[in-house]
């Protein structure tokens, strides 16, 4: 059995629908990146490398990667969908918000090399520009 190092989980024991098995699997697959961790964030899990968030595991158990001007087209070309959520407005209306995170292709969850390709794009996008 492969030994995983540098994986830290924060707040995983809370009641939410994120699959702990999927989270453990993702963290295991992403461990070659380095100090990968996950933290509860509004019912989902933020996925971090050295304190910088580059991914989101949603409560619907979908894995999203941070995008920017340099990598967004790759996600769009693959038909990946953006992470979105609904916010209630003071007027009572609900408005959909989209973040700059896009779901990885389904095939990436079955192939560690492909998952690492997408994850590295997200890590790069999470770095400060300049």
TrEMBL record:
Transmembrane segments: none
Family annotation (Pfam families): TfoX_N (PF04993)
Domain TfoX N-terminal intervals: 28-125
Coiled-coil annotated residue ranges, if any: none
Identification of the protein by name: TfoX/Sxy family protein
Source organism of the structure: Halomonas binhaiensis
């Amino acid at each position: 059995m492969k030994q995983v190092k540098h994986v830290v989980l924060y707040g995983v024991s809370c009641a939410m629908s994120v699959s702990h098995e999927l989270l453990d699997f993702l963290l295991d697959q992403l461990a070659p990146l380095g100090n990968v961790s996950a933290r509860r964030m509004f019912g989902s899990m933020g996925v971090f490398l050295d304190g910088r968030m580059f991914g989101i595991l949603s409560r619907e158990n979908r894995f999203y990667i941070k995008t920017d001007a340099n990598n967004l087209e790759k996600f769009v070309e693959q038909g990946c969908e953006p992470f979105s959520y609904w916010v209630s407005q003071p007027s009572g209306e609900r408005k959909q918000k989209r973040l700059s995170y896009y779901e990885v292709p389904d095939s990436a969850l079955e192939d560690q090399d492909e998952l690492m390709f997408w994850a590295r794009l997200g890590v790069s996008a999470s770095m400060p520009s300049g």
